[in-house]
Write a structure and sequence with these properties.
By secondary structure, this protein is of the alpha+beta class. The chain has four helices and three strands; from the N terminus they run αββααβα. It has helices at 3-13, 42-52, 54-58, 72-77; strands spanning 18-24, 27-33, 64-70. The chain has a three-stranded mixed β-sheet with strand order 1-2-3.
Length: 81
């Protein structure tokens, strides 16, 4: 699966999300900023993303997906998001 496809699916699946995705050969990392994360724990934020790729993770199309997530206000206060 191409990083651009993962990015597209995250941005379509989570309203208002902006994603940056890198990786290859079933190992990826993503930085995702979304207003939908407001009021949710990091675990809940990550679960929202993993739910979009349940099938790909089960069949090992995606073996690893490292996530860094933030709300827009958190992203403004953290450099690099």
């Amino acid at each position: 699966m191409a990083p651009t496809e993962i990015k597209r699916r995250i941005e379509q699946g989570i309203p208002g999300a902006r994603a940056q995705v890198e990786g290859a050969e079933a190992h990826y990392s993503a930085v995702v900023v979304a207003p939908a994360f407001e009021g949710k724990s990091r675990i809940e934020q990550h679960q929202m993303i993993y739910a979009l790729f349940r099938e790909e993770m089960a069949n090992q199309t995606i073996h690893a997906l490292a996530l860094k997530t933030a709300t827009p206000s958190e992203a403004q206060s953290e450099k690099g998001l």
